[in-house]
Amino acid sequence: MNRYPLKKLFDAIPRRYDLVNRLFTWGLDQVWRRRAARLCLENDRPPVLDLCCGTGDLAIILARESGPGTSVTALDFSGPMLEAAVSKAALRAPGRIGFVLGNAAELPFPDNTFGAAGIAFAFRNLTFRNPLRDRALDEIVRVLAPGGRFVIVESSQPANRAVRFFFRLYLYCAVNILGGLLSGDRGAYRYLARSARNFYGAEELVSLLLDAGFAHVRFTRLLFGAAAIHVAEKGDFVINNIS
Q: Which pTM does this prediction carry?
């Protein structure tokens, strides 16, 4: 799937996107976003970027958990998604977030701009059968300052075969079928379920990030391996293990 159908897909689903996410992760997606936000903000790393921000949940958490001097920027390529994020932020983090309409493969920022960048449940859209994957990874490395931290919270592949079987069954039955019914867009949730089912395992994602030029990549599995948080550093700054 190239970027044009993908953009059309996300332009169509913001109205019930948050509701469907909460239902199918039992609310854990927000717990994991808060964990990712803390990792982005650890050791005082402003300014911070929420990449592919969607409806703005991670950016809002970053703004609310950081100090007033921390600049938070949120970028997405979908106008309707960004409009939803702006409306939500006006209520929950007024005046704290700068929103940018832009493409991750052509980030509109100078080199070495951000001390940290986070991405929540959108990294697979950049990397799953996306012909612009390598360009997007190069851009992320470019805009991070030396020692900058990139934090990813994303679906993953459980290592246990039985858990993996039930995880994929859940993706098919719940995310694919029920998500399509609840959202009114079956094609969108068919893609989301398929991309999660076929996405990288945690170790494979480490290799991808190292090949892209990141260093000292670490990860921790979530929910029996159905999701994971990865942290990678640009340059020679060594990070601590995630607890």
A: 0.88
